[in-house]
């Protein structure tokens, strides 16, 4: 028997349970993995509190790194001892060991350690699809990225800077403003004390930006639309402050023929070839130092409830890793 963090109902961090679970032998197309590091992400809290519906009971968690223990029938390309990682589920990474479809896993290259891999698979692949596929950032563009001191924000802002963009980031409080500035942002707006719309307009000479990447949601959405230049794209990809209220399409026309998208990582890496290409590009920018990963918090896996409390209270910065 191994241990995992499971939920039997939805609610706050107190519903998380440290329980013994059985892990079966890998079936056709599956791997059994021993986790060495597990990533903490906001989506985990959405599933825990019931915003994203799922069947219960459930082991939480979307991303992790570890070692292959056993290979199921029909699996090729993997063997026991391989270092591997994944970042798009299926849900169940909050465990010492698990089985997972081999198609969901990629090998970790030399030059990237397990903790880093666990910290970047979901957040880094999210940054990849946002910057390289949803709205492909071009050199010379000015972009706005909300929550620039967060896990996705720190990776994405460094990556956007590497791509040649001028990066405007938002963050809450002096400490997070400093973090955002140290991680790729040319301009940082403290939205706890500043009007970010007015600042963006001032920075861009009134033109606005061609794209806003917003993982905050409810509290920043309307203002973000006002930061866009005509025919700009609003990319809302998270709900840290709550889900965005319904919007009439007429609002998009009134504010300059805007585009609005609500993308998810799963859509962008649904094909194995896309997944492998995304992971290879992510590992490359990390291995060569273009994107530096800050793992600013670690917690024992059995103390995941406290990690969730700190994440939701905005007490964490950068990436957080749970250790089995």
UniProtKB/TrEMBL annotation:
<dbReference type="InterPro" id="IPR020843">
    <property type="entry name" value="ER"/>
</dbReference>
<keyword id="KW-0521">NADP</keyword>
<dbReference type="InterPro" id="IPR036291">
    <property type="entry name" value="NAD(P)-bd_dom_sf"/>
</dbReference>
<keyword id="KW-0560">Oxidoreductase</keyword>
<dbReference type="InterPro" id="IPR013149">
    <property type="entry name" value="ADH-like_C"/>
</dbReference>
<feature type="domain" description="Enoyl reductase (ER)">
    <location>
        <begin position="11"/>
        <end position="322"/>
    </location>
</feature>
<dbReference type="Pfam" id="PF08240">
    <property type="entry name" value="ADH_N"/>
</dbReference>
<dbReference type="InterPro" id="IPR002364">
    <property type="entry name" value="Quin_OxRdtase/zeta-crystal_CS"/>
</dbReference>
<dbReference type="Pfam" id="PF00107">
    <property type="entry name" value="ADH_zinc_N"/>
</dbReference>
<protein>
    <submittedName>
        <fullName>NADPH2:quinone reductase</fullName>
        <ecNumber>1.6.5.5</ecNumber>
    </submittedName>
</protein>
<dbReference type="InterPro" id="IPR011032">
    <property type="entry name" value="GroES-like_sf"/>
</dbReference>
<dbReference type="GO" id="GO:0003960">
    <property type="term" value="F:quinone reductase (NADPH) activity"/>
</dbReference>
<dbReference type="InterPro" id="IPR013154">
    <property type="entry name" value="ADH-like_N"/>
</dbReference>
<dbReference type="InterPro" id="IPR047618">
    <property type="entry name" value="QOR-like"/>
</dbReference>
